[in-house]
Amino acid sequence: MDDYGADPTGRTDSTPAVAAALRHAKSVDRPVRVVFSKGTYQLYPERAETRELYVSNTVGADQRYRDKKIGLLVEDMHDVTIDGGGAKFVYHGLQTAFASIRSTDVTFTNFSFDYAAPEVIDATVAATGVTDGHAYRVLSIPAGSPYRVSGTHITWLGETSPATGEPYWSGVDGLQYTQIHDPKAQRTWRADNLLFNDVAAVTDLGGRRVRIDYTTAVRPADAGLVYQMRLIERTEPGAFIWESKNVTMRSINAYYLQSFGVVGQFSENISIDKVNFAPEPGSGRSTSSFADFVQMSGVKGKVSITRNVFDGPHDDPINIHGTYLEIIGKPGPSTLTLAYRHPQTAGFPQFAPGDQVEFAAKRTMTPLTDAHAVVTAVDGPSGMDHDKPLTTMTVTFDRPVPAGVEIGATVVENITATPSVVISGNVFRNVPTRGVLVTTRKPVLITGNRFDGMSMASIYVSADAYQWYESGPVADLTIRGNSFARPTGPVIFVEPTNQTIDRANPVHRNISVERNSFDIGDVTLVNAKSVTGFAFTGNTVRRLDGSDHPPYTSPLFVFHGSSDIRIARNHYDKGLNTSVVMD
Q1: What angle do CA 351, 354, 355 make, to 5 degrees?
Q2: Counting Cβ atoms within 10 Å, is residue 257 exposed (0-12), middle (13-18) or buried (19+)?
Q3: pTM of the prediction?
Q4: Mean pLDDT score of the chain
């Protein structure tokens, strides 16, 4: 890499050299290995590779954000390894760290990466008090979060572009969204931002410390807590795997993911192994991702997520799903017009000729009679330009559309683009949301993981045709040999968004929870809706406060519209409410 002018000393911008090296690697007979020297490489967006791309769960079809800057781009390449050689990549501005597009047998390995100015502000309440009848807080701001104080407001500036002299982004006071992190308790949760209520004055004390004085006299009770503040637009993925096959991330320190997480989109066989998703030690930060860590949308083959640390996201560490499209027209007997219905997902193809689809009723989220067909033609968005409508597509099938299909009342899922999943040996901590979201009909194994202090369900099985439109049903899910410590209930939550429960045709089936350990407060372990074939066997459930305290009142098991439930051979501490509630 250094032969192309990349600077491992970190004094100059290495972006042009990296782009040149990767373009040359594309011309080399495979396999090819792109190797960095150990050091620090600065990567700025102004001269990064730019592509028009549309990415699931981000800004949808919004044309303001259609062009993505990509620091390390593997595009139309095969048998390629990006070996960081122990280097650290420091990204500037708003850009995707690395991407694999239309490539096969790609490995990203042996490097660390961070952003010079994360789009999340981690402000620690270093001190509180009352002076002359006015309460105050002193905030400690980590390096890499420039700001300006003016009157009663703070403006967060991102960092200044060397090309334009303007900040890459900016926002005022509490921005648009807040989480609170407790470093002592090692918990993070979503909450209102109290820092900028009833402000009388804001003073820059120097040394990255800011004092906020208030009109009220009540001393704040949040000393030591960290307010994690950000804007809400997911302008681009932190990393992107699109229309690629056999892609591996291994032995990486992902200190921060800007704008969103790692998105796998209509790719096949993705492996994420030994990646440390956590803030860099000594950075003063507690946030390591603007939103999710890993989002898999319409991936097929196998998704393997093993031996990783997931620490400090602003949304779910792992979310694996497809996408339901709603039927909005029927231009022919074998042709339908379909639409993306959530504003964050649009612009990319959802089907290809040869894919099999399933038609499902929105209200019950169960398949129609004679529900399957094969795609023969698609006219819709390409995922890399805006020449065609970005929210709709016309799809032709190998047979007439089933009689039960109704415009506005039926959704369609690509069931070819659904993966089998292994999630094994990971650690989840400081998570404000769910630990794992998974909705796929292929076999799923969640085993040997440690979930510590989740603020919502540790494992969440949904399927949704009314809000996020994230498909689809689970048919073979095993949750085995995991440790759940200090969870929020329900620990395992099965909650499809069907508005009407069809008891004869449940949404999910065949879920086994076996040989796990649960160390819990007074919470529900399992809350499951519209599932048949649920087994909870051989598990150990312990009380966090011991058996000498008053009995817990929350039932461990709650089932709605479900059948074939088996609960057996479990060990429970005394004082737990082991009742099973069914309706």
Answers
A1: 45
A2: buried
A3: 0.97
A4: 97
Amino acid letter, 112: S
What are 263's two structure tokens?
A: 């998105």
The percent of residues above 70 in pLDDT, for the chain, comes to: 100
Distance, in Å, from the CA atom of 415 to the CA atom of 439, rounded to the nearest integer, reads: 12
Tell me how crowded residue 68 is: count the other CB atoms within 10 A of its CB.
25
- Whose structure tokens read 């968005």? 381
Q: Does residue 350 sit in helix, strand or coil?
A: coil
Beta bridge partners of 581: 558
- For the segment 40-48, the average pLDDT, to the nearest whole number, is 98
Side chain identity at 219, as an amino acid letter? R
- Provide CB contacts within 8 A for 338, sequence distance 6+: 325, 326, 327, 328, 350, 392, 393, 394, 395, 412
Classified as helix, coil or strand, 219 is coil
CB 292 within 8 A of CB 260: yes
* Calpha distance 347→391 (Å, rounded): 6
* Cβ neighbours of residue 62 closer than 8 Å, sequence gap 6 or more: none
304: how many CB neighbours lie within 10 A of its CB?
18
- What is the phi/psi pair of residue 20, to 5°? -65, -40
